[in-house]
Amino acid sequence: MPKFPKPIENLIAQLGTLPGVGPKTAERYAFALLKRTGEERGRLATAILAADGTLKLCSTCRNYTESDPCHVCADPKRERDLVCVVATEQDLLAVEHTGEYRGLYHILGGALSPADGILPEDLAIRELLSRVRDRAPREVILAFDQTVEGESTMLYLSGLLRPLGIRATRLARGLPIGSELSYADELTLSDAIRGRRAVGLEAAEAKNRT
Is 3.20.20.370 the CATH classification of the domain at 64-209? Predict the structure, then answer.
């Protein structure tokens, strides 16, 4: 037997499909929305529908945009031979907010996680390789979370880029292990961008010391 009237149960169920929203949080959000005026709920619904109707993916970097290419890819002042590969749109914004990076981006749409069913074919890896072959950038920065999934994605991509003669770098170790890129403060992320290193350099240095 449902705890709440059917419309509320449906609202809770839909809110519960959002990432990171469990049953209790979904209930809290649902009742918070119900306490808003009809006009306020209408503005929220309009904003959701408008975003769905006007946004598209940039054909270059795959970020959400109202025009194609997006404002970053269309900016003639950006360094066009420098590409920063990130997992999500939030990660792109985190890097952009530092003001330290002036190149272009490529959004994969996630990170490799076989346990969650996310395989290479589920990400925009083919598009990245095609872009690299066509434009031959001088450097590709692999900017991923310092997690198992992020490290796995970075190593996988570096293995694909190496035969193409592309210099692949990673963010410096200023980012704590296990941290998410989009939650890093701007100063830490700025330092990580400035101190980026060639992928695999740590392993090579360790081998030389033995």
Answer: no
